[in-house]
Write a structure and sequence with these properties.
mainly alpha, two-stranded antiparallel sheet, 15 helices, globular
Length: 372
């Protein structure tokens, strides 16, 4: 008797919470070892838990974008005067600039410290982009739209369509390249690029228009009427919640502000804003067919990313190793290593995804159905 867990698709919100936890931890460190660990955790999780849907193959594009970000950041450090430090790697001639651009230097001596600073900054931004790409490759955008709160339905639709654009382009590129290979189309690299870009963009545009037409036919974006008193209540709750959150955030950042404003302002503002969202969601009338449920695996995956963010933003926030010096080799502590490795728990506790070939009927059954 097999004890393997049955395959099923995880709730898309769990993958996004996990990825946002990893991205939040990457924002507070420039240690390349920790950042590369986060990228490795995201890559391993995607390789183990991605399905065979079209959007699942977009992760490699995000890896390429991350490499481009790091390269551009280092190149700008070289071009725009990265001359601080004493270890000169390359002594380029400095181009004189007019006085109204004081503070900006074009070329000049390139030091090891300036190159490392650009490398660390670029790697941090690339890690955030790769974490978003991991969530995009693991989460089903259509199910994510279905799971949006009613109050965020309209803006959620736009966000989901925008997030799904890159995977859609990746799928279009794959299909266009396969069609050209089957036809044996010759041509150089530049010629192939020019011949591929137009069909890919046209296919992506047509699929986007088909998605918009299908959403309109199914009543997406239609809202019910609410009495004027309830609309006023919604507006008051939203404004009061916004004021409370702003007051609590200001008191948290300003050490001279009264401490009693922090928790009441933040908690009260979030509560009032939640009430406003609930009231605003009543104007959206729609039903859900088989709504996604949060189970133990979803909670563990979300807590995995939250634990990484809480550990880095909390106990490790003042750790000097999060921002290593540019003149020494970066190192990590055992505590930081354990905290970041908590992100791999998502790949261990999540179930195997359902593949499209597992849900498709066998070919003989399709042939019998057509013959009948």
């Amino acid at each position: 008797m097999s004890t393997a867990r049955p395959a099923r698709d995880l709730h898309p919100g769990a993958w996004w919470l996990w990825a946002m936890g990893l991205a939040a931890s990457a924002t507070v460190t420039t240690n390349p070892l920790l950042l590369l660990m986060i990228v490795g955790i995201a890559a391993v999780t995607v390789s183990l838990r991605r399905a065979d849907h079209p959007w699942s193959s977009s992760f490699r594009l995000y890896l390429v974008f991350g490499l481009v970000i790091v390269t551009i950041r280092v190149v700008f450090r070289v071009l725009l005067g990265g001359g601080f430090g004493s270890s000169v790697l390359l002594d380029l001639p400095q181009i004189p600039l007019p006085g109204w651009v004081a503070g900006i230097r074009l070329l000049g001596p390139v030091t090891l410290e300036s190159v490392l600073a650009g490398l660390y900054d670029g790697l941090r931004l690339a890690t955030i982009v790769i974490c978003v790409g991991a969530a995009n490759a693991l989460a089903n955008p259509k199910r994510l739209l279905k799971s949006m709160p009613p109050a965020l339905y309209e803006i959620g639709t736009a966000i989901v369509v925008a997030v799904a654009l890159l995977p859609q382009l990746a799928d279009s590129l794959r299909r266009v390249r396969a069609a050209r290979q089957l036809r044996g189309v010759p041509g150089g690299r530049i010629g192939r690029l020019r011949a591929v870009v137009v069909p890919v963009m046209e296919d992506a545009l047509e699929r986007s228009m088909s998605l918009a037409a299908g959403m309109d036919a199914r009543g997406y974006g239609r809202a019910g009427d609410l009495p004027r008193s309830q609309r006023r209540t919604t507006g008051v709750l939203m404004l009061a919640g916004l004021v409370g959150i702003c007051a609590g955030t200001y008191a948290l950042l300003d050490q001279t502000a009264p401490r009693w404003l922090v928790m009441p302002g933040l908690v009260g503002g979030v509560a009032l804003a939640g009430g406003g969202f609930w009231s605003a969601g009543r104007r959206v009338q729609r039903s859900r067919y088989r709504p996604d449920r949060w189970r133990t695996e979803e909670i563990c995956v979300a807590l995995s990313g939250a634990a990484v963010a809480a550990g880095v933003l909390g106990p490790l926030r003042d750790d000097p190793l999060l921002h290593p010096a540019l003149d020494t080799f970066p190192t990590v502590t055992t505590t930081a290593l354990v905290v970041v490795l908590l992100g791999i728990v998502a790949a261990l506790v999540s179930p195997r995804p359902v593949l499209a070939q597992e849900t498709a009927p066998p070919l003989e059954e399709v042939g019998d159905a057509r013959a009948a």
